[in-house]
């Protein structure tokens, strides 16, 4: 922000400064014109003796704006017409040559450069004075002491023989404020630094009649302690011996605004109170201050009394309400803690069940609906509407803290083709997982029907194909869409559950991570066959997501045929030496273009040729010996959806070798 140090036309400011023009007149003077009217608003008024075109305007490094003629002497300079800022080399006082008095004059406010009511000038007796309204002195420097080089009223100058300019921003700083019962008269210009309007009463003293006599309730007085009394006090005529008599003397006159009674007797003030000053704490403690009794309307005390009562009442009500709320919150916390002890609680979005709750929900684990390498599964019910499946893990060696962390990481996996985990149990050495129950059991029940399972249904081709596509989507999510790749490690029909709409849900994902056991031993024990294990896993190589791709290919072949891939037959056709090992048979039938003969006989009339061929091709690619030749599950989804064409796959050499050994056994 820039500070204006000189203004040409302070007394007559232009309404539209953008219409002004500063130029030279015909006689060489500097003039300010109003371009709208072409009238001269201001002129330097110098006595120019040189040619008109010889005058120049120069801004010196000191900030002095100088009008010069042909010589170097100044015809006019801004330092002779100071505003409210004293620059270096500028002087105040009487110019004995021109007879002009140089002085500083305040501005009205921060935005209005017009002359204000305060000024600083040097008097005839070499006394620096601060004047109000250019006539009333309110501060004087005192006489100049030539021997010691300081003003008598400024003894601090004697130490260094210099003025000491300081910025005070502490308790000593003098600030302007309104007394009690008064407020700012002109708040719009107050913020701009113009305090000349002063303060006004909040409640007028309107109890005086037209003839100056008191009418109505008497006004009251508010004591302002430790102050320097205002200017222009008046004495009360007649003897006044007490503060009560002084107060009554003020009340008897409508124009009386305050009184003070002290060692000097009774003093009263009429009209405005000028320069009332609160003393600093040190001065007040030393007893240097006086007590000013400020006259206020009776309504002012009533209003403040009501306000005080309202504040006190509000504070009491608020405190009481806060206490009641605190007690209520405490009671609720105690009740919640008791309830938490008596019911399952949530841990990372999953419910942490107590063992006895699951024991009661499953009827003491009486309804066993499945078993596998990781544990047994029991059917249960949390309430009349929520059926659950509880997997009781065997052999989990994870500590409680680690088990909870691993379960939480599995619980955040959410996909329409993944079984939803509801919660878990971790008490002592008991480790259990709670899932949503799938009413249509697992895929193997419907693919490999047996006389012992009368509830099994034959899946239509469209349902089977939809199951295959859903499983592919679920595995693609685990492999490619999770923050950390999740390898299932046990993809098989028994771990593909079907909901009420026969939508597939992959189960047991993440189990290998929880169990921390040798994966190959778990899975071979679970299946009793290597039919779903990839060749690299059997040979002890590192496990990658491609082991799930291999297992998925085997499952897809079983969906097509409706039988286990491990079933082998000798002499299954006209050629008695023919070996029927389904994965190898699929590769051969693809080359012959006879894929419909591979479909489950129960579904042959319902199958779609394009979908059967697509499923057989992608399945053969998934079971390739080299894991690099197997597609990612995301691409498998695209192939089954018909978005990507798939080439003819080669026959897996390892499976062909297995078929050859089977052929030798048959012959």
From TrEMBL:
Transmembrane segments: 309-334
Pfam families named in the record: B_lectin, PAN_2, Pkinase
EC number(s) given by UniProt: 2.7.11.1
Keyword Transmembrane listed: yes
Domain Apple: 208-297
Residue sites binding ATP per the record: 391
Domain Bulb-type lectin: 1-80
Entries under InterPro entries matching the protein: Bulb-type_lectin_dom (IPR001480), Bulb-type_lectin_dom_sf (IPR036426), Kinase-like_dom_sf (IPR011009), Pan_app (IPR003609), Prot_kinase_dom (IPR000719), Protein_kinase_ATP_BS (IPR017441), Ser/Thr_kinase_AS (IPR008271)
Entry's localization field: Membrane
Bilayer topology: Single-pass type I membrane protein
GO BP annotations, alphabetical order: response to other organism
GO cellular component, as recorded: membrane
Protein name, as recorded: non-specific serine/threonine protein kinase
Organism: Panicum hallii var. hallii
